[in-house]
Each structure stands twice: as structure tokens, then as C-alpha cells.
Design brief:
Strand content: 25-35%
Distance between the termini: 86 Å
Number of domains: 2
Number of strands: 15
Shape: globular
Largest sheet: 6 strands, antiparallel
Number of helices: 6
Order of helices and strands: HHEEEEHEEEHEEEEHEEEEH
Oligomer: single chain
């Protein structure tokens, strides 16, 4: 008979994201098996992408640590992700630049408004494990993951060949890789916004792509062309096709004909729950009581600009 931990010793199930691998080992055997299978699935995905290689521990080099991050998806799937402890990286040795540009929220709203006005086709996708595509320029070593140390090779470490979640330069490495791939597909990046890419075919028809890290919207006046360019993008990366977007950057998107409505109701509900304010008294507007807006009857004045 196997010993089963007492109920009081089981990890708190209300926040799986706070669990450590040791919490997994305290679960009943059946649940342990499911979570360990999720960890194994993550390691196999990393190996397929050739994210790391097992090497001898180098002398005089810092080896960073890692941890498992667990989550339960909305469909009940158990998800495990191996994350590097980036806070232990040394600036100038393990990384140099870390800033990763993303699309501006104003740009996203502008493109959605333009799509509504011009009745453009919009479709979305997200790139699976996007950071794992980013190639590292630095020489970084990491400990083997807890619970999955290679037998007989316990003293060896992992040399990271590609970016791993948690590394300080992971976002930048992915963006550089994405930027190069968009060039290969014929897209041009907007100078004023690093997350907006534009493609034009021989007839001048545009396809606009809005990218925020691993989430992307493809839109344009010609549905066939938009879907064609999206398919080419998905040939380069392992993606999840979202079809007509219902959500983007925590904004709910509702489309009805030439009207697109966006809101953040779901996100606001999560914030209220986190702050314990679900039953707080609501106010329709932050304007003072008794305020009555009056139309502007003045004349617009053109301001002179000086060279």
C-alpha cells in the first residue's frame, strides 16, 4: 500500500500558479501522474525546438536556476511550463539589451476602427510558446529542471540555445526573430510602431498585421488575401488559429456588420474579485453630480506654428 498524504497536508488548490514542484509530490498518486505528464510534455516540446543541450558544467560560469509554473486551462487541461529565474542573470554577461517593443494600444483601437469603417476582414491567431523561437546571442547555462534530472548525469547542466520564458532577453530575442520572418514574407514594419506590419500585393491591396508578443490580428479588405498571408505565417510558426477574434489584449471584441464594440468587462470583473469589491456600489460615470454638458458654440482658431 502507498502512503497517501493527509488532507490537511495537500497544497492549496485555489491558486495553482503558486505551486512548486514539491507541491505536486504531495498530491494523490493519480493527480501526481497527470501533472508529471504535463511536465514531460513541456520538456518534449522544448527538446523538439532544440531549446537546450545537456553539457558538462563549465568552470567559472554562473549557472542560473529555474522553476516549474503550473496552471489549469479553461478546458480543464493541466499545463506545466519551465521558467528560467531571470533575476539571477548577470548584466553584461548573461544579457545586454532587454527592451522588447510591442504594438501600442492606440494603434490596436485605430485598426479596429478602420476595419469597422471599411468593413475589413479580421482574423486572429496566437503563436504557441513564441519565446522558444528566439535565438540567443549570449552563452547561458541553466540547472536541470527539478524532478527531471538525467540519471547518471546529475552534474551536467543545460546550455540554452534559444530563449526560455523568464530570461530577461527572451522577449527581445523573439521580437527580432519575428521581425526577420515578417520581412521574408514581404511585410514592412511601421517605423512609428514596432508591432504593426503592412503587406501589399501587386494590385496594391493591403494586409495589416497587428502583433503583441505572441498574439496577432490579420486584417484587410480582401478576405482571400488576408487568409493567404495568415496561412503563410502559420507555416513558419506553430500557431493556434483563433478565427474571428473575440478577444485581444484582454479586450472583448464584438462585431455586428460594420460595427465593432470593444470593452474590458471580463478583465474588470477579475480586478474587482482580486480586490474584494464585487458588491461595491457602482457609479455610472465619475463626473460630478448635476453635471450637464453644453455644446461648444465658439469658433475654432488655427494656431500658427513656427519653423
Amino acid at each position: 500500500m502507498k502512503a497517501v498524504p493527509p488532507v490537511d497536508d495537500l497544497p492549496d488548490t485555489s491558486n495553482v500558479r503558486e505551486w512548486t514542484y514539491r507541491d505536486i509530490t504531495r498530491l494523490p498518486p493519480a493527480e501526481q501522474k497527470e501533472w508529471k505528464a504535463a511536465c514531460q510534455e513541456e520538456l518534449e516540446a522544448l527538446q523538439r525546438r532544440k531549446v537546450f543541450e545537456l553539457v558538462d558544467r563549465p568552470k567559472g560560469r554562473k549557472v542560473i536556476k529555474n522553476r516549474w509554473v503550473f496552471d489549469v486551462k479553461s478546458d480543464g487541461r493541466k499545463k506545466a511550463r519551465l521558467v528560467a529565474k531571470g533575476f539571477s542573470q548577470v548584466e553584461g554577461v548573461d544579457y545586454d539589451q532587454i527592451f522588447s517593443p510591442v504594438v501600442r494600444f492606440e494603434t490596436v483601437r485605430l485598426i479596429l476602427a478602420l476595419s469597422a469603417l471599411e468593413n475589413w476582414h479580421i482574423t486572429g491567431l496566437d503563436v504557441r510558446n513564441a519565446y522558444l523561437y528566439g535565438k540567443l546571442e549570449e552563452e547561458i547555462y541553466m540547472e536541470q529542471p527539478e524532478g527531471f534530472v538525467a540519471k547518471g548525469q546529475e552534474r551536467k547542466v543545460l546550455r540554452l540555445l534559444r530563449a526560455l520564458y523568464g530570461l530577461k532577453q527572451a522577449g527581445l530575442a523573439w521580437w527580432r526573430t519575428l521581425n526577420e520572418s515578417m520581412k521574408e514574407l514581404g511585410f514592412k514594419r511601421l517605423v512609428s510602431d514596432a508591432g504593426l506590419f503592412i503587406f501589399r500585393d501587386k494590385n496594391g491591396l493591403p494586409v495589416i498585421v497587428v502583433v503583441y508578443v505572441d498574439d496577432a490580428l490579420f486584417c484587410g479588405p480582401n478576405k482571400a488575401l488576408v487568409e493567404k498571408m495568415k496561412a503563410k505565417f502559420m507555416e513558419k510558426w506553430e500557431c493556434r488559429d483563433l478565427g474571428e477574434p473575440k478577444e485581444f489584449l484582454r479586450m472583448r471584441i464584438q462585431r455586428s456588420g460594420s460595427t465593432i464594440r470593444i470593452d474590458q468587462c471580463a478583465y474588470l470583473e477579475k480586478v474587482l474579485q482580486r480586490c474584494g469589491m464585487q458588491n461595491a456600489k457602482s457609479a455610472p460615470t465619475p463626473l460630478p453630480a448635476g453635471y450637464h454638458p453644453m455644446p461648444n458654440t465658439g469658433t475654432a482658431v488655427m494656431r500658427q506654428t513656427h519653423p
